Amino acid sequence: MKIVCTKSNLVKGVSIVSKAVPSKTTMSILECVLIDATTDIIRLTANDMELGIQTDIEGEIIERGMIAIDAKFFSEIVRKLPDSDVIIETDESLQTTIVCEKAKFNISGKPGDEFSYLPIIEKDESIEVSQFTLKEVIRQTIFSIADSDSNKLMTGELFEIKNNMLRVVSLDGHRISIRKIALNADVTDKKLVVPGKTLIEISKILSGEAESKVNISYTSNHIVFEFDNTVVVSRLLEGEYFKIDQMLSSDYDTKVRINKKELLNCIDRATLLVKEGDKKPIIINIGDEIMELKIKSQIGSMNEEIMINKEGKDLLIGFNPKFLIDALRVIDDEEVTLYLMNAKAPCFIKDDNETYIYLILPVNFNAAG
Amino acid sequence: MKIVCTKSNLVKGVSIVSKAVPSKTTMSILECVLIDATTDIIRLTANDMELGIQTDIEGEIIERGMIAIDAKFFSEIVRKLPDSDVIIETDESLQTTIVCEKAKFNISGKPGDEFSYLPIIEKDESIEVSQFTLKEVIRQTIFSIADSDSNKLMTGELFEIKNNMLRVVSLDGHRISIRKIALNADVTDKKLVVPGKTLIEISKILSGEAESKVNISYTSNHIVFEFDNTVVVSRLLEGEYFKIDQMLSSDYDTKVRINKKELLNCIDRATLLVKEGDKKPIIINIGDEIMELKIKSQIGSMNEEIMINKEGKDLLIGFNPKFLIDALRVIDDEEVTLYLMNAKAPCFIKDDNETYIYLILPVNFNAAG
């Protein structure tokens, strides 16, 4: 194999597919990037058997062939080359030379046919959203997946297609995050549970451009994201996702409108007094026009008042401050609305059209403390 | 005590003195910042017994007094306050309230008289350099102090005043870094060994402005840096520093002029093939007009050629690539000159006036490898 392409194209391509290279594995072929120039295009692929990414890069094929190269070293070498054309050439013994201007690297490759290609997916159906939307939706929900594997389904996100709407849901037992977006075409209803890791990696690759589209297709076992020159294939998580609709209620006894930044900054300051792992709640006292926030720990105490617009009853309620911070951080609105029932019922932060809903369970606290 | 000052003044002051707060200590008073408002100025002090820093901040003293507060929490709280006036008030039981707009923190302080004040230094003599110069000189030498305590003197830097020149020297057994600057006044010859930690912390505080001066005074046990509203006092290291002059030679058989950036980038690329802890040398082959650099490891091999301007003999010599990189990174010149004798003798990188000298010992290598 002998190919020529620019350093910048190569860096971009390797950086995209490297997201599917496992950080730990016993199979050294999985640590490789496959450079496939057996046809008329130069295609890079990485595949950890759960998540696979391929991307096509521009360049010239002088001699067809393919080679698998250690992803980490290949990526580091390419990144440090001068900004010029890069020639990659392999010989029969899989020795690979990488030449750029006067620099010449020589490393061993592995045979390309040992590499696991991406599975070929029979696409049942597909939807289309902008790169911007997909990236935003992931950012606004991914924080509330569970990080432990004790319940596998909680480590993924529900992608639910219903009535030409896409609803993305994550939950971890203490809170639920929901984002809803309208689809532009008629599609059959469908529920998929996408691994959180896939979504985290894909959101790093997405350009975030509003004009650029992502085609999302799926079978019962796989989901495929196609955008720019890149294809991301991921297994789905098996099993039935949690029934969340029965947890969502539109009843409330207290409704609070509040400046988001003021609330966020205040809770952020309060967490200074809480050491990692310490479960001190922030106590919120909702009165007429004023919300008082209090926290008390071994380190000290803090209280602060914020002006609010309230409808309904007064309420004293406690929360894990981190959960409030996580939700408030990803909301772009200047003002947010909180819906509450009582000190034992969940708090809902949502907009009027319910394009986002954040459900947060309260925590018990000692009112005298 | 009751004082009022702006958030930004407080943040700046706390950030300066926090450099002298030890990260680990069994004496909890050392983890504190002392706020001293017993006179007409508000003075912050931290002191780990080796290094002490005090800085005066602008503000209003409403009630005189002093208090010692945990530096970490105080600094975090102050940083997250709204950008407004901050009122700090203590009561008889050392409870300290920090109020800023509607936010109110309450933490316990410690009595100020438990705090170790900075030692009062009888200044024998002093020199003056600009903040820019001191910061640069530290940056250009600090990388070659030894990080282990096996030889205490190697963890510091020699400040040698001689013939109205200040020479700053560091060495670690494999290399020596020297920077020389002219002083603007007549001063007595003197040798001081300043702890590396002191220099690292002080260079973080220095503004780096060329117009702003640092006054450096010293006794046989202490060195004092005074600049802006800040005083840094450090113990000196005891003992006689290494005799370096006999290691410096102006003889050479090979002299090479080379573009610094090309050389640095080439060595930087070569180190990709060297894993942490692996001691593979970079082998440099100096010929007429061309210098060839080669490295070979288990991962692969690399070679590259750079155009040079050579006087004297050809030479094949090996170096630890890290040592070359460290020196080249801190040199600001576009071209550098290397002076070499043979494959066993040190290489000198220096400018014509010897304002900087970097001595690097070569390493043995297998020429056949």
TrEMBL record, chains A, B:
InterPro entries: DNA_clamp_sf, DNA_polIII_beta, DNA_polIII_beta_C, DNA_polIII_beta_cen, DNA_polIII_beta_N. The keyword Secreted does not apply. It is found in: Cytoplasm. Residues 129-241 form the DNA polymerase III beta sliding clamp central domain. Pfam families: DNA_pol3_beta, DNA_pol3_beta_2, DNA_pol3_beta_3. Its main location: cytoplasm. Keywords: Cytoplasm, DNA replication, DNA-binding, DNA-directed DNA polymerase, Nucleotidyltransferase, Transferase. It comes from the Bacteria. GO terms for molecular function: DNA-directed DNA polymerase activity. Residues 1-118 form the DNA polymerase III beta sliding clamp N-terminal domain. Belongs to the beta sliding clamp family. Forms a ring-shaped head-to-tail homodimer around DNA. Confers DNA tethering and processivity to DNA polymerases and other proteins. Acts as a clamp, forming a ring around DNA (a reaction catalyzed by the clamp-loading complex) which diffuses in an ATP-independent manner freely and bidirectionally along dsDNA. Initially characterized for its ability to contact the catalytic subunit of DNA polymerase III (Pol III), a complex, multichain enzyme responsible for most of the replicative synthesis in bacteria; Pol III exhibits 3'-5' exonuclease proofreading activity. This is Beta sliding clamp. It comes from Dorea hominis.
